[in-house]
Amino acid sequence: MASKPIQRLIGILMILIGIGFVVYGWQKVLAEGVYWPKASFIFPALAFVGLAIFLYPMSKEECLERYGVEKPQSWSHFNGAQKSLILLGFAAGALNWAFISGTLRF
Predict the structure, then answer these.
(1) Cα angle vertex 102, ends 99, 106, to 5°?
(2) Is the pTM of this model over 0.90?
(3) To the nearest 5 percent, what fractions of the chain are helix, strand and coil?
(4) Banded model confidence at residue 18, pLDDT cuts 50, 70, 90
């Protein structure tokens, strides 16, 4: 497991990539009417997972102390805030997909 500063850097990169592709996807659909369903779901979720990693990094020592493993291996190994952000990311991805596909309107 990477150190907390490295995890935070990875989180920032995930946030930037996620947001960048969401913006690109919206520009593409507004300009050309073309969108990618999987990407419109995955990239908002990626941004929120990156936010969870950035805000709540977990050290190897924490995992060993709490769960007896070196890195999270199941859903129960994440704290409540991380779980909330991950679920919020899936919801944001689903909403983005619905809006970009035209299923929902503003």
Answers:
(1) 55
(2) no
(3) 75, 0, 25
(4) very high
